Amino acid sequence: MTPGTQSGLDPFTRQKAVLLTTYRRDGRPGATPVSIAVDGTHAYIRSYQKSLKTRRLRRNPAALIAPSDMRGNPLPGPELPVRLRLLEPGGTEERHARRLLRRKYPLLHGAVVPLTHRLLRRRTGRTVHFRADPR
Q1: What is the C-alpha to C-alpha distance for residues 129 and 25, in angstroms, rounded to an integer?
Q2: Dist CA 36 CA 104 (whole Å)
Q3: 49, 47, 41: which is closest to 6 by C-alpha?
Q4: Neighbours of 120 (CB within 10 A)
Q5: pTM for this structure?
Q6: Quick one: which of 107, 113, 124, 21 has its CA closest to 68?
Q7: What is the DSSP string of 27-90?
Q8: C-alpha span between 5 and 1 (Å, rounded)
């Protein structure tokens, strides 16, 4: 991002967690706290293949993000509509997302989350990454 350029994601750069709201088939919202790593005009989040949010995002990539704590309690700040795109496993952008999350959360995304996802792989499926772009 060039100096002076603003992204709708600027308020989330230092945010440790956001409340990601995805939509069920009937249109009702479902919110989940997730870690976020902002990279210029887009951001990355991580989940697992069989999670509800991943299944919802495959059907409808429109979502909202809002500041929250790690437990999902909302914090003051803007709510931002985003469009999420599933990244290709093993692709360049997916590796970049993994690296950004690991750099921002060394213990959580460098060790705990990858180990947990590996141990629970049969039940949860593989780890997936999404790119979020403001709508």
Answers
A1: 22
A2: 9
A3: 41
A4: 12
A5: 0.89
A6: 21
A7: S-EEEEEEE-EEETTEEEEEEETTSHHHHHHHH--EEEEEEE-TT--B-SS--EEEEEEEPPTT
A8: 7
> Which residue in this structure is represented by tokens 């709201």?
21
- pLDDT for residue 6: 60
- The mean predicted confidence, pLDDT, of the chain is 92
Instruction: State phi, psi for 44 to the nearest 5 degrees.
Output: -130, 145
* pLDDT of res. 120: 86
* CB 9, CB 80: distance < 8 Å: yes
CA-to-CA dists, residue 89 to 27, 94, 95, 96, 130, angstroms: 28, 6, 8, 11, 10
With a cut of 70, which residues of the chain have pLDDT below it?
A: 1-6
Here the tokens at position 131 are: 């790119």
Per DSSP bridges, beta strands 127-134 and 80-86 are antiparallel
